[in-house]
Amino acid sequence: MATADIGVYGLGTMGSALALNLADKGFRVAVTNRETDWIAPFVAEAGSLSDRITSADTVADFVAALVPPRVILCMIPSGPAMDGVIAKLRAHLDPGDTIIDGGNADFHDTRRRAAAFEDSNLHFVGMGVSGGEAGARHGPSMMVGGSAEAWARLRPMAEAIAARFRGDPCVAHLGPDGAGHFVKTVHNGIEYADMQMIAETYGVLRDGAGWGADRIGALFADWNGGPLQGFLTEITARVLRATDGDRALVDLIVDEAGQKGTGRWSVIEALRLGQSASTMEAAVAARAWSSERALRASGVLARPVPAVALAPGVLHDALLAGRIIGHAQGFRLLAAASDEFGWSLDLPRIAEIWRAGCIIRSALLDDLAVALRAAPEGQVILAPAIRDALARTVPALRATVAAAVTAGLPVPALSAALQWHDSLAQARGTTNLIQAQRDFFGHHGFRRSDRDGVQHGDWG
Ligand code: 6PG
Collapsing DSSP states into helix, strand and coil, what is residue 452? Predict the structure, then answer.
C-alpha cells in the first residue's frame, strides 16, 4: 500500500541520516538499498522512528510504497551509478514523479539527466546537501536545482529537515537543472580554499614558530570566539587538541590529502567561465602536491630553515582576509555561471542558506548575506562592510605571506588571495604589454585608450 511521503534510495552514511531526519520530522519514509542486507540494520538503528519507515527489498516494492506524485531521493555515489539507478527507477514511475540526486554530482551530469527527463513529464532534481553526517541527521544546508513543480512537492519536506538560521530554513530552490549542484560545487571550492588557508596558518605556527598542536588548537578555539568564528575554525581547534595516548593525533596523521572532485570541478568551471578561483586552485594543487611524498622526503629541493616571528593577531587577520577573498572568488564564480547558464542565481539567498548546516558556515557568511543583499551582483568586496574588513586585514595578509615566503614556508592559498587582491587593487595593470606582444606575433589587435576600435601596432 502506498503510504510513504518520500523514498530514500541508498542507505550509506548520508542517505541513512537524511531518512532518519525525515522520519524524525513526521514524514513517512520508504527506504531501499542496492545491497539489501543493509536495510534491516538501518531499520533496527531507527529505533522508535521505524514506525514511520517502510523498507523494501526491490525497486518495484519501493516505488509502490510511495504516495503519488512520488518523490525519490537518491543518496548514492555520484557518477555512472546514478545513471544506473535512474534507469531502474524510471521503469516504475508515472508522470509527475520526481527523482532527486542528493549526491555531490557534477552539474554537467545533472543538466544532461534533467534534459533527458524533459519529454517524459518526470522531474529530475539536483540537490546539493552539505553538513556531513551530523548535518544530514539534524539539519543540513540544501541547494536545489530543478523545476518549480518538483520544488513545490519537495519544499515542505526539505524545509522541515533543513538547518535553521534564526528560524529561516537553510534550503532554497536556486534555479533549473544543474543550478543546485553547481552551487554545491562552489561551496566545496570555498571549503577547500578555507581548509587550505587554515592548514597554511597551522604550518606557519608549527614549522615557523615551533608551536605544538595543542597550543595551536587553543589559539583556534580563541579565534572561534571572534570574526573567524565558523565550523571549520571550530573543528580545527578540536582536531588539533585531540590526542592518541600522549601524542596529538594530528601529528600521527600522514600529510597526504584525498579529494573526491568537487574542488577540482570548481577550478575547472572557473577557468571555463573566464574567471579566477585561484584560492581554490591553490588548495587543489596543495592536495595534489601532498601526494609527492617520496620527492618531499628526498630532500632534493632545498629551502631556508623556516623561522617566522609573527604575532598571532597578524595570522588571525591574514586568515580572515584570505577567508573573505576565498568567498569573494566563489561568489564571483556563481555570478559568472548564473549569466552563462541563464540561472538568475539569487546570490544573497545562497549566502543565507550557507549560514547554518553547511561546512563553510561562519560569522563571515552572516556578514556576507547582509552585504550581498546590499550589493547583489556578486562582487562582495564592493559592499562597504566587507571592503572595510579587507582594508583592515590585508596588511596582515601581506606581512604573513612575505614572512612565510622569506622563510620558505609554503602558503599557496594565502599568496593566491593576496595576488588576487593586489591585481584588483591596481588601476593600471600590465596586460597592455601582453596585448602588444600578442599583436606583435599574431596580429591579434588591441584597443587604445585614445582611439576607438581595434588597432594594430607598427612593430618594425
Ligand atoms: C559538505 C562536504 C561534503 C564532503 C565532500 C568534500 O558540504 O558536507 O563538502 O560534501 O566533505 O565530499 O570531499 P573531498 O574533500 O573528499 O573532496
Answer: coil
Where in the sequence is the domain holding 14, given as residue range(s)? 6-177
441: domain CATH number is: 1.20.5.320
Tell me the CA–centroid distance for residue 167 and ligand 1, in Å.
Answer: 26
- Atom index in ligand 1 nearest the CA of residue 287 equals 15
In sequence order, what are the residues at sequence separation of 6 or more whose Cβ sits closer than 8 angstroms to the Cβ of residue 31? 7, 8, 9, 11, 15, 19, 39, 42, 43, 53, 54, 55, 56, 62
Indicate whether 332 pLDDT > 80: yes
In terms of domains, do 195 and 336 share one? yes
Instruction: Report the CATH number at residue 63.
Output: 3.40.50.720
Same domain, 460 and 404: no
Task: Give the tens place of pLDDT for each residue, 380-438.
Answer: 888 888 999 999 999 999 999 999 999 999 999 999 999 999 999 999 999 999 999 99
Interval between CA 95 and ligand 1 midpoint (Å)? 33
- Whether residues 305 and 420 share a domain: the answer is yes
Whether residue 34 sits in one domain with residue 142: yes
Distance (Å) from CA 442 to ligand 1 centroid: 44
Are 56 and 146 part of one and the same domain? yes
Grid look-up 560545487 returns: 185
Distance 23 CA to ligand 1 centre (A): 25
**What is the b/e burial string over 116-127, where b = at least 16 CB atoms within 10 angstroms of the residue's CB?**
ebeeeebbbbbb
Residue 1 located in a structural domain: no
Residues 206 and 246 in one domain: yes
Please say if 191 is a catalytic residue: yes
What is the tens place of the pLDDT at every residue in 338-371?
A: 999 999 999 999 999 999 999 999 999 999 999 9
CA distances from 73 to 60, 83, 97, 228, 405 (A): 15, 14, 11, 35, 48
Is residue 260 flagged as an active site residue? Answer: no
The atom of ligand 1 lying closest to the CA of 188 is: 9
| Last residue in a domain, options 177, 197, 226 | 177
Selecting among 118, 184, 352, 377, the annotated active-site residue is 184
Q: Which residues line ligand 1 (CB under 6 A)?
A: 104, 130-132, 188, 191, 258-260, 262-263, 358-359
* 30 and 144 inside one domain: yes
How would residue 302 be classed by pLDDT, with cut points 50, 70 and 90?
confident
Residues in a beta bridge with 447: 454
Domain annotation covers residue 341 = yes
pLDDT digits (tens, 9 = 90+) for 262-280: 999 999 999 999 998 999 9
Query: Given this model, what pLDDT does residue 378 score?
Result: 66
Q: How far apart are CA 267 and CA 264, in angstroms?
A: 5
Probe target for ligand 1 pocket from 129, 143, 191, with the most ligand atoms within 8 Å of CB? 191
Domain end point (choices 151, 177, 203): 177
Q: Which atom of ligand 1 is nearest to the CA of 131?
A: 8
Percent of the chain with pLDDT over 70: 99
Set 35, 191, 269, 281: catalytic member: 191
Query: From the alpha carbon of 141, which atom of ligand 1 is closest?
Result: 7
**Structural domain total, the chain:** 3
Q: What is the structure's pLDDT at 413?
A: 98
